[in-house]
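Recall that a protein's primary structure is simply its ordered list of amino acids. Everything else, from secondary elements to tertiary packing, is in principle encoded there. The following example makes that idea concrete.
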Amino acid sequence: MLCMLCVGGILPKSVWANTSHHSDIDLRSLQTRTVFFSNSAKSSFLELEPTLEVTSSSVNTLSILEISEHFQSNFLDTSFENVHPNVLYLAAPENLNPGLYVPLPVESSPPPLTPDSIDSEPVTPSTETTEGDSEPVTPTAETATTDTTPSVPFWEVEGLTINLSDAFSNFDQGNRIIEPTVTGTLPNGDPLSITTGFNRYAQPDVNTVFNIPLKAAWTREVGDFTTTTGGGIDLFNRLPVAINLNASTSVPIGKKATLSFFADYGPYKFNATTLNNQIKALRYGPNLYWQITPDMYLFSLVRWGRYNDGNHEQQSFSRLEKKFGDFHIAGNLFTWRYREDAELASGYFSPSDFLVANAEIGWKGEVFEWLACGTAASWGQQRLGGSWSSAYSYNAKCTFEITDHLEMDLGYAFSNVIGQTGGSAFNNRAVTGQVRAKF
């Protein structure tokens, strides 16, 4: 069974570690995110159900128990000449004059030895010439050899996904993400994906940073374990090249649960300030997905993080969701704490005590045969430094089926979940999109 999960409600910027996707449990994000539940009434080749979509300023999608099946067909050369390489045609000379027929070499038993033949020379076949003389003829035969092994490419491309996002806050912080990912399979069936992109991080009074990621991810199944490893580099317009690495593994627990572990290292793409300060983070921790009933599930995760500026963090998130046809309700609980507040020195939101608890309601269904839309809203409370305030969010997304092999998502999200300290109210908006093509 394939399930995909995204978190309901709005979560702060670094709730998720950045990992690669394919045939594994994938949790990715580095920015404030709006979460959207999608349980589409229609299923396509590109989006398997049930689905929970996450949109964020880094345009990362969280998928649970995401398994890709790859099909490959091999065709053999079955032409008439290859099936019957030694066919005798009726117009051949040996069929009109048997004396011209040259027999094929065959294994035959040697003639019995006699005293007269012990010292005799080996006998070679002969044919009559026009003068009647006998000349030795060496038997020859042309054996048609055709290599029927099918040609298998090193990497068979199967699809393309382009993630698009433009997220901006009321403090003029903006992160614009464009990241295409090409997916395919290796000759042994293992999935391999390659991702690049062109990203822009901007803030007032801070040098704008442009980023081009180059990374690959490889997935292998060994027994019950599905493991993904990936890595690459991040290129910047005015900063040194940075390395990014990630790994994940998952294993089923019984028939209804899956336990996973993730590790991720790379630049902390929170905003332009963290990139200019060359902040890097290592995050790791487990995920648990439990399908309690066919229409109810529980998802939990824990993340620990270590930063190159000496700071440490701990995150936890849990979501319980119940579906009612095209509708759903869910409850979310998120906690986040840092050892030190490094916002002034390093530029990233690092609360010593932060909590968000909310309830969510949502709907998604088929509007037309080629159009599926959904919307979700959440309301709850958030606590920062002992002070409580309301937390709410809303979002909407539509999926357009352009052709049988091409579809596109377009969404909008709003959240007032705190993403930085200060006395002013914080809010974040994001316009998101995704294009999916199958080759």
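The helical segments are 80-83, 93-96, 272-276, 343-346. The chain has four helices and 22 strands.
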